Amino acid sequence: MEIKTIKKIAVLTSGGDAPGMNAAIRATVRAGFFYNLEMYGVYRGYEGMIQNEIKKLESKHISHILERGGTFLKSARSQDFRTPEGRNKAYENLKKHGIDALVVIGGDGSLTGAHLFYKEYGIPAIGIPGTIDNDLAGTDLTVGFDTACNTAIQAIDKIRDTATSHDRLFFVEVMGRDAGFIAINAGIGSAAAATLIPEKKMPIERLVERLKARTKAMKQSNIVIIAEGGKSGGAAEIAEKIKKQLPYYDIKVTILGHLQRGGAPSSLDRVLASKLGVAAVEGLLQGKYDVMAGIINNKVVYTPIAKAIIGNKEVDEYDFRVVKILST
Ligand code: F6P
């Protein structure tokens, strides 16, 4: 593949924000400066690209952002970028600024945008996996996942205090869209009584049996983790379905929701984001386009975006067994 001369790179964050996105922006921009490139920020993701919200970045813009949650470039889910007209407008704006290449930090939808844009306009683009869901192939972990799991576990620890004090049964719903990675980790890390994920079926009857068995075993508190994307419904629906079969329980439901997306990134997310920011810029300079930079077994790897987004990562069978063994 022909290696294009790259002098100006624009970076953007898109889709749901994730802790560590700022660290990834900083690393991308600093790596660009290291290689004497001009760096630009696109505000509000692809929507901002269409609206020409593109600004040249200097060191001062990225100082003290590594440790902050969210994304200072802001994020959006752009409907217009899904249309050829929207992408054309975005392309014209990049041309106006003389931008040669793009670094897109986001999840599968955001990386799909980069892939399409590269196919249509040939703008070298590289992705950094930034999503709390951890649902991209081509990397062991996505930026934001570790922090989200820590946040979920800390919240569940607090719920456990009140669950134990009142002998209550709690259904806690965690995020992850269609993937159960946050749920599995939260389940293991918070000693859940059961963990329901979209990837594995657990009939409601089996859940009821498990909870009845735990009652007999005089377990002090029962916390059931429900991944939001499950086929049996969310935490509220499942709680409703089983409450008649467990009449002696005072059942409560907590949806952790967007609090899982906020907060300062963990050390793991800061380091991962920093490594991937450098990998993205170096990848572009080496002619790696239409790929996502990821880390597998501690080594940087570049995976074609088309594979990273459709190769939906499987939940590790071993992790699932651990959940099962430890929650009986
Ligand atoms: O992809 C990240 C995520 O937080 C998912 O876990 C969740 O399903 C979704 O985004 C929520 O999106 P929004 O913030 O647009 O409601």
Topology diagram in text:
Elements: E1 8-13, H1 21-34, E2 38-42, H2 45-50, E3 54-56, H3 84-97, E4 101-106, H4 108-121, E5 125-129, H5 145-166, E6 169-174, H6 181-189, E7 194-196, H7 204-216, E8 222-227, H8 235-242, E9 251-255, H9 267-285, E10 291-296, E11 299-304, H10 305-310, H11 317-326
Parallel strand pairs: 1-2, 1-4, 4-5, 5-10, 6-8, 6-9, 7-8
Antiparallel strand pairs: 2-3, 10-11
Helix pairs in contact: 1-9, 5-6, 6-11
Bound molecules: 6-O-phosphono-beta-D-fructofuranose.
6-O-phosphono-beta-D-fructofuranose binds near residues 131, 133 and 176.
Keywords:
328 residues; Rossmann fold; seven-stranded mixed β-sheet; 11 helices; binds 6-O-phosphono-beta-D-fructofuranose
User: What is the CATH topology of the largest domain?
Assistant: Rossmann fold
Derived from helix and strand composition plus strand pairing, the structural class reads alpha/beta
Distinct ligands, ions and cofactors found in the model: 6-O-phosphono-beta-D-fructofuranose
**Architecture of the largest domain, CATH level 2?**
3-Layer(aba) Sandwich
Determine Rg (CA atoms, Å): 22 Å
Number of helices: 11
Spatial order of the strands forming the largest sheet? 3-2-1-4-5-10-11
Tell me the number of strands. Answer: 11
Regions with little confidence, pLDDT below 50 for 5+ residues? none
- For the termini, the CA-CA separation is 54 Å
Helical amount: 40-55%
Beta content: 15-25%
Provide the CATH top-level class of the largest domain.
Answer: Alpha Beta
Major β-sheet profile: 7 strands, mixed
Number of domains: 2
Oligomer: single chain
Kindly state the mean pLDDT as a whole number? 96
Shape: elongated
Order of helices and strands: EHEHEHEHEHEHEHEHEHEEHH
